[in-house]
Specification:
This protein has 2 domains: about 50 residues, no CATH class; about 120 residues, Nuclear Transport Factor 2, Chain: A (Roll), CATH 3.10.450.50. About 45% of the residues lie in helices and about 25% in strands. It is built from 6 helices and 4 strands. Strand 1 and strand 2 form a beta hairpin. The longest helix is centred in the N-terminal third of the chain and has 23 residues. It is flat.
Length: about 180
Amino acid sequence: MSRPPTGLARWSAFFAVALWGITILACATGLVPGATTAAAGARNIYSVRSQLLMEAMDSVGVAGPEAAATVWAEGLRQRSAALQYSVMDEDLRETYAADLDRTFPNWVTGVSSPWVERYEILKINPLGDSRAEVELAFETATSTGPAGTYLATLTVEEDGAFWRIESIQSDEGLNAYTGFLP
């Protein structure tokens, strides 16, 4: 059977706890140089990663209107704002990111039910050599069956070597899946 600490052992434990508390306080208040910088760096690592990934989107893309529509539609089906964002032009990205801050700040779009079950590209309408309209239909479902169909029209433009979405027109019911504010 062990006995509670007495004498020197009790005081050693007290001083260890007190020293630990003082160290935490000193680091948090900046009395220990570099401690707050390290803590701030740990918090900012995700901000830096996010910014770099968003900037990298300027260097990657898809090679045609159908591919742009497919990536965007997969973003809705997978509930991924990152996929949707990746095929937008710079102006639309700016608007979309601002809307996401208010609608889906974690960039997981959509709702758990009903969900986007499938999508189909209905028609691609060329608008000259470097632009096109892509019409899509999205079918939603719940555990009990079909929940509705929504339509979207994307205007896609050639931007250097890539094709990017410059505008999105959709049925209001699709807003819950995209993250755009009505």
